[in-house]
């Protein structure tokens, strides 16, 4: 399970040696935060996959695929209404055995289709709170802000960048924390993000390292994707608003993104 589901790499039939270290003390397995470790590894793999020279993606893709299905209904399997799962069942089991939507034999055609679909998304096409209108009331740890880690791999986690997923208006988030070292070359093999272990102390001091959401923002009042007045300008300036680019008309891309996200 560890090497084939949670901490998958691109070797297919091998497991990172560090995974075996977690099995030395079997009586402590239930004390590990497997969820945050899995997420940290997935974040790192997605970062590597974003490099121009990448030819694949690793990590817990089951988690990624189910996350897509929950938040983006347009990408769900066709003509399928996910069942309600019981309290002792994994939420992802709702999607077991369902084929991907819009399956196309030619990979290049399929890629172009999904790129266009992503660029056509509007905020109304997103299901912002699929798990709970206020998920932090169910899982307080979801408001933790700091480093999540898998072995020597650390990734920053900041819920202030996705307040709408907690049922709150999105506002401009604070500047991100800086790693000790960050190398992101085109070749994914040289991708390095190094975060000092001193950052890990935040995990055990939740009250002082969490987004106090009721002080930070307000519940959305009109629609689930509501933002503050200054957020959209910040978003356009700091984000890649489209997957497909038109290099001959960059200004139009920015204007188009602002219109699509301004509701």
Describe this structure in words.
The structure is a single chain. This protein is mostly helical. The chain has one domain (2-79, 104-228). The chain contains 9 helices and 4 strands, in the order ααααααββββααα. The protein has helices spanning 2-6, 17-21, 34-49, 61-71, 107-119, 135-138, 213-216, 231-238, 250-261, and strands at 146-150, 153-157, 181-183, 192-194. A two-stranded antiparallel ribbon has the order 1-2. Strand 1 (146-150) and strand 2 form a beta hairpin.
What features would you highlight for this structure?
disordered C terminus, mainly alpha, two-stranded antiparallel ribbon, 9 helices, globular, 4 strands, 263 residues
Low-confidence stretches: 248-263
Whole-number total of structural domains: 1
Number of beta-strand segments? 4
- As a percent range, the share of helical residues equals 25-40%
* Count of separate DSSP helical elements: 9
Largest sheet: 2 strands, antiparallel
Shape: globular
**Main structural class:** mainly alpha
Share in β-strands: 5-15%
Mean pLDDT: 83
Strand order, main sheet: write it out: 1-2
Q: What Rg, in angstroms, do the CA atoms define?
A: 20 Å
Distance between the termini: 43 Å
In N-to-C order, the SSE pattern is HHHHHHEEEEHHH
């Amino acid at each position: 399970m560890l090497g084939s589901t949670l901490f998958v790499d691109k070797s297919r039939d091998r497991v990172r040696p560090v995974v075996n270290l977690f099995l030395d003390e079997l009586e402590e397995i239930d004390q590990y935060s497997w969820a945050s470790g899995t997420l940290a590894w997935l974040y790192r793999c997605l970062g590597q996959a974003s490099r121009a020279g990448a030819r694949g993606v690793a990590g817990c893709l089951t988690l990624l695929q189910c996350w897509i299905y929950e938040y983006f209904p347009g990408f769900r399997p066709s003509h399928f209404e996910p069942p309600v799962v019981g309290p002792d069942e994994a939420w992802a089991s709702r999607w077991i055995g369902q084929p991907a939507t819009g399956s196309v034999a030619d990979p290049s055609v399929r890629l172009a289709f999904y790129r266009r679909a992503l660029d056509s998304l509007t905020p109304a096409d997103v299901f912002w709170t699929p798990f709970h209108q206020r998920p932090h009331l169910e899982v307080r740890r979801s408001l933790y802000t700091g480093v999540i880690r898998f072995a020597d791999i650390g990734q920053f986690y900041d819920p202030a960048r996705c307040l709408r997923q907690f049922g709150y208006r999105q506002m401009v988030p604070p500047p991100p924390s800086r790693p000790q070292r960050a190398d992101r070359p085109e070749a994914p093999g040289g991708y390095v993000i190094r975060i000092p272990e001193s950052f890990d102390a935040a995990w055990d001091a939740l009250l002082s390292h969490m987004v106090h959401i009721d002080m930070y923002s307000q519940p959305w009042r009109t629609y689930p994707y509501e933002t503050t007045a200054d957020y959209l300008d910040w978003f356009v300036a700091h984000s890649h608003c489209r997957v497909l680019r038109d290099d001959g008309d960059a200004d139009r891309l920015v204007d188009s993104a602002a219109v699509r996200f301004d509701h």
